[in-house]
Amino acid sequence: MTAATNPVEIKVARQSPAYWRVTIDNPPINVMGPPMIAEFHELIGALEADEQVRVVVFDSAVDGYFLNHSDFLARFEDLAAMPPGPTGLPQWPDCLVRLTRAPVVSIALIRGRATGNGSELTLACDMSFASRERTILSQWEVGVGLVAGGGPMARLPRLIGRNRAMEVLLSSEDISGDQAEAYGYVNRALPDTDLDAFVDALATRIAGFDKLAIANTKRLVNTSLPPDVEIAAGWDACMASLGRPAAQKSIKALLARGFHKPGDVEDRLGYYLGQLA
Questions:
Q1: What is the pLDDT of residues 126-156, one digit of tens each?
Q2: CA distances from 187 to 159, 177, 190, 241 (A)
Q3: Which residues contact 8 (CB under 8 A, 6 or more apart)?
Q4: Cβ pair 66, 108 in contact under 8 A
Q5: Domains and CATH numbers, the chain
Q6: Bridge partners of 58?
Q7: Can you say whether residue 60 is alpha, beta or left, with left for phi > 0 and alpha for psi between -120 and 50 degrees?
Q8: Beta-strand (E) ranges in 181-228?
Q9: Contact between 70 and 20 (Cβ < 8 Å)
Q10: Cα–Cα distance between 58 and 110 in angstroms, integer?
Q11: Cα–Cα 20 to 30 A to 208, which of 50, 222, 248, 277?
């Protein structure tokens, strides 16, 4: 978004003053590292400050990936050194919490894999719509001995119920668009050919409504959100799990099989996690 964070990994297009599109673009597989987190931090600040924007839609420019897992080839020190955000939470959970609370309607348009961070962004959005044929959601972390850091343990049970949340989190399985719709993980799974037009029409419609009415309605619905302390606990557990020998061993084994680059391991991550076990 700025020269300080080049190459730009999330791109903002203002369809109108009231309707923004945010496109995630970090080929080849849309992993998230510290530079992308910094861009999200800047974006959330812009959404909070702009008095005209009413709707933001998140999509992807990378075929096969909405938003993927963290960048395990990046320097951990760069992530750990990032200062807390305005909520006092570390920057990634801070961005997600502020997105959920912002007086702006957030919509995830999911085509491709939403793995780890992508699932967390989906859960933080106010609505989510998925390609029936091309969407995979995954909270994959337990499969390699990690704990998810972006709040799914706090958000998923409130969204889909405790037992289904346990299935998603503890199985580390890939969840198809149809299954995600059936569980309530996303609002709807639509035919891929219909997805863009549906989301654009919905976003355009909402963008025409009064911002104060939107903001106050969202504020009152948000009384059911998890408190920040639950989000913080998940992040702390995630950071602690990263250094565990079991997690490091599993991640190295996946990397040796082709994890972190285009190919079958990324495309069928749930399967390969089962093979590790």
A1: 999 999 999 999 999 999 999 999 999 999 9
A2: 11, 10, 10, 31
A3: 1, 25, 39
A4: yes
A5: 3-276 (3.90.226.10)
A6: 22, 108
A7: beta
A8: 188-190
A9: no
A10: 8
A11: 222
